[in-house]
Amino acid sequence: MLTFSTIDAKQDLDHKIYLLERLEDRTNLDLEPSEMAYLESELKAGAQVHFSRKPELSVACLPEGDGPKAYEEARILAHKVFKNHKGTKLALLGAASDKAMAFAEGLALSAYRFDKYFSKKESSLATILLDERFSSEQLRELQAVVGGTFLARDLVNEPLSFLTAKQLGEEAKKAGAEHGFKVEVFDKKKIESLKMGGLLAVNKGSVDPPSFSILEYKSADCQWDKPIVLVGKGVVYDTGGLSLKPTPNSMDSMKSDMGGAAAVIGAISAAAANKLPVHVIGLVPATDNRPGLNAYVPGDVVKMYDGSTVEVLNTDAEGRMLLADALAYAKNYKPQLVVDLATLTGAAAIAIGKYGVVAMGTAKEEEFSDLSAAGDRAYERIARFPFWEEYDELLKSSIADQKNIGGREAGAITAGKFLEKFTDYPWIHIDIAGPAFLNAAHHYRPQGGTGVGVRLMYNFLKSKV
């Protein structure tokens, strides 16, 4: 695991990065005349500067300005520097500002590798050393947030051959044991006793049992009367069921359909690791969606956990069936707010691509404002969709309380509208389908699982303290 510490003057530094807050600061660098001349020419050209001498040295001038955009530019700059990095240890010198911390975060996020299944593993960055002016609290928070993001990325990248619904519950337990929060996992018998019809319906086509994980972190310092509940979609693999997906550019990446569950586990792990004074509960309904055995079929009517009925017209709209049971179960906690995260619809991905996440719901404007601010800080930005009551008409069924799809129009919104029926509390739905899994790396977000949602929800929880 990548770790962070402050620089000890006695340490042998393999690779140094000098961070300049302002161009004028370059006069403070201990550079040879030829190197300074090269630095001046590169800065005039607007290029990133790298020197190759021992110990290896890079110089990076942090972006001007302040705020989310400048911090994101610092993360992207760090990724560019990292591509020239070699060795297992790297030191950041010169600046100790919030932008320098954003640079460190971008550097760390760029260092992620999922190499579990390689027979030969290459050495990778193991330690980032920061200026001694950074506090231990800042380093602990960076460690917690990066660790939670790496955990989510790992979970999304794991294939179904390892990460079944049952194993997802086990991974949540491991995270709880490591970071200090409680985890309870319901097995199929318990789920059947609770009559979670949505989760059980999707699971009917699989030989592997479902699971329902409950994560709870409550700080002794928390002042809240009611918890915030996070719900994560845990479809560990989605074939589409009998409404089978095409393989190219669709089913081949569907191990990622539990990205919402990964975000919830990662975010609660980060909050617990950094000891945020919050009370947060995570609910993770999990199964794979297969067309085998006694798979549910289009035309079926399913009785849900809350007693309502759903006409299934598309078995590939399975995530909302799981989430509906979990959202209804969340009522037991009398929450102040519920936020669900899910790779729910292709419509959301098509609408805004990989550049943000889609949100909608019934929470107060203050909650959406706080969420948007948290998204800006992480640069996991929020695109809020309308939630007009006219969309309810698209889900009306002639034989049940509602249909599980609303047609081609406004697909991301009607999916949210379906979920709304199972809530009676302030609620936000976040569709992370666009950025959760990438076919090609995008700056410090790698190919494969990105861990989107972890930093967003950590920032959101922190804003409530």
Could you characterize the architecture of this molecule?
Helix 3 (98-110) links the parallel strand 5 (89-93) and strand 6. This protein is elongated. The chain has 13 helices and 20 strands. The longest helix is centred in the first third of the chain and has 22 residues, at 136-157. The model has no long low-confidence stretch (mean pLDDT 94). Helix 2 packs across helix 3 (98-110) and helix 3 (98-110) runs parallel beside helix 4. It has two domains: 3-133, Leucine Aminopeptidase, subunit E, domain 1; 145-463, Zn peptidases (Aminopeptidase, 3-Layer(aba) Sandwich). It is of the alpha/beta class and 465 residues long. The two termini are 28 Å apart.
Which tags fit this structure?
465 residues; alpha/beta; Leucine Aminopeptidase, subunit E, domain 1; Aminopeptidase; 2 domains; 13 helices; 34% helix
Radius of gyration: 23 Å
Strand content bin: 15-25%
Shape: elongated
Structural domain count: 2
The parts where pLDDT drops under 50 for at least 5 residues are: none
User: Could you name the CATH topology of the largest domain?
Assistant: Aminopeptidase
Broad structural category = alpha/beta
Q: Round the mean pLDDT to the nearest integer and report it.
A: 94
Distance between the termini: 28 Å
In CATH, the homologous superfamily of the largest domain goes by the name Zn peptidases
**Proportion of residues in helical segments:** 25-40%
Total count of strands: 20
- Proper CATH architecture of the largest domain: 3-Layer(aba) Sandwich
- Main β-sheet description: 9 strands, mixed
The CATH first-level class of the largest domain comes to Alpha Beta
Secondary structure tally, helices: 13
